[in-house]
Amino acid sequence: SVVLPAAEAVPAQDDVLNEKQAPAEQNKNKASLWSRLSRKGGKNETPGNETFNEKARPTTVAPPAAPNAEKRSLKQRFVDSYRKHYCPREAPTVVLPSCPTDKEKYSYMSMNRAWLFIKTEWYFFWYALYAVLTEVYIFMSLGITIFGKRFDLKGHNQKLRDHPLTVETAPTVDIYLPVCKEPIEVLANTWKHVGAMRYPGIKMQPVVLDDGAQDEVKFLAATFGFRPDFLEKLIPIHLANPKLAIVQTPQFFRAPGEQTWVEQGAGSVQEYFYRLIQPCRNTWGAAICVGSNAVYRREALVAVGGTAAAECSEDVHTGFYAVNRGWELAYAPIVLACGICPDTPRAFFSQQMRWCTGSLSLLTHRDFWKSDLAFKQKLCYLSGMMYYSSVATAAFFNPLPASVLLWTRPELMKYYNLFFALPSLLVGLIVIRAWARSPYTLSVQYTQVIMAYAYLQSFLDRIFGTKLSWVPSGNNKSHKNNRYRNMRVLAWCWTIAHNGLLISASVYRIMGGLAWWQVFPALLLDAFNLFIVHRFLFYVHAKEA
């Protein structure tokens, strides 16, 4: 969160010390609220004064309950909590998903939609670049979501009635089930739900693709529990539009208490994209394909040369090239499958880094800028890339204003500066939590720290031309790399550095006469940010414990 300054015109120091100042002079120095927010301070200024449905919860491979758990002492419960959240001795318990319930199926239908660093000195202009880029992204994203339309559920149901699936009308369907060293219970759970799908005749053919022994894998491992009506809800959309290449549905995740905090946060943070962003992008014909839970038209894939040969996010590239060649991509926010998320910080870091790398590779490729996509479509893709850049830079730029002010212009450090940061805090902690269908707890804030450093690493890889080897999200043994370690070291260094700057500046200025209450809100906000980042800093993986 950003602590932003509000410049205020105050009397010179000699006048402040003069308690017998004439009332006329005091009134002359008073400024309106607007002037305090807009005027530049003088050089001689001084410091002034839903509850989950239990029937819908996934099958859990739970560890045996501890004997006499209710009689454990406070110290023992503290040790148990520490080992669970920071230093697990065993790999996390696998919490298998079940297919979405009828209530969850349509839970993404309703979207419920949703600079100030004053130019006091020339040496604050460095902050303007970050502020401008962030605001451009925010206004771009707001424009896409404000004018985007809700999914037409009535129109969708009409397509189902107009194009019923029978033995004569149903096209053949191949279901690809990639395998790459995922836990065997995850694969068994997936295949069980795939086998329960309803489809006319014998026109559905599941195909298992065992890529565990290959160096590169083209498809993301399928770890989803599908509803039996998955194909019944999506194939008619294809039948209604012969130019439709891909129908994409949401990636949906539950967050039961048996999961790790990483799984809970990683699943909940996806709702905003699949429930709000994707439907709005679909309005402009710019929804993206994410691979999982999608139905592809074989004719379209053949026409565009098959799946795109991309190192990361080949599904996004495939959808882009299909649209660029005249095909269409539709997004239906109908929850038809439930999945599982990475359960450790390292695995989640690897997944997010891969997603960001895939987006950057597309947005920095000449094919994108020379494509025949409409301007509004390119704007949607560009907004996605700017999201990654804004999150990556926020971790470093957001904590700086308070420290910079205290060291350079302490007279501008006011307790009400925090008021400018309150809206973003309220939105992130309260508003979105009330809007979300999933439990939007502090686990989301914890995982967003991991996302910031993962995106930063992706940008560094792109700048320096280093490549990232692909590993599936479900294979925790393949996520060890120096990138995660390096970003952890950077997080430690940056956390110590900016907290040291803020605390030392606060002590120095308070001892010099600055009222403590002018600094306290900034310290309070910094303490909250420190609490949010501590999970990423202190987590010890099971095999490192």
TrEMBL record:
What SUPFAM superfamilies does this protein's entry cite?
Nucleotide-diphospho-sugar transferases
In terms of domain of life, where is this protein from? Eukaryota
Domain Glycosyltransferase 2-like: start-end pairs: 227-429
Provide the primary localization: membrane
**InterPro entries annotated for this entry?**
Glyco_trans_2-like, Glycosyltr_2/OpgH_subfam, Nucleotide-diphossugar_trans
Tell me the lineage of the source organism. Eukaryota, Fungi, Dikarya, Ascomycota, Pezizomycotina
Which UniProt keyword terms apply here?
Glycosyltransferase, Membrane, Transferase, Transmembrane, Transmembrane helix
According to the record, the residues making up region (Disordered) are 1-71
Q: Does the keyword rRNA processing apply?
A: no
Quote a single Gene Ontology cellular component term: membrane
The protein here is known as Cellulose synthase catalytic subunit (UDP-forming) like protein
Keyword hit for Ubl conjugation: no
Give the transmembrane ranges.
124-147, 379-398, 418-436, 489-508, 514-533
The molecular function GO annotations come to: glycosyltransferase activity
Subcellular localization, as worded in the UniProt entry: Membrane
Q: Specify the protein's topology with respect to the membrane.
A: Multi-pass membrane protein
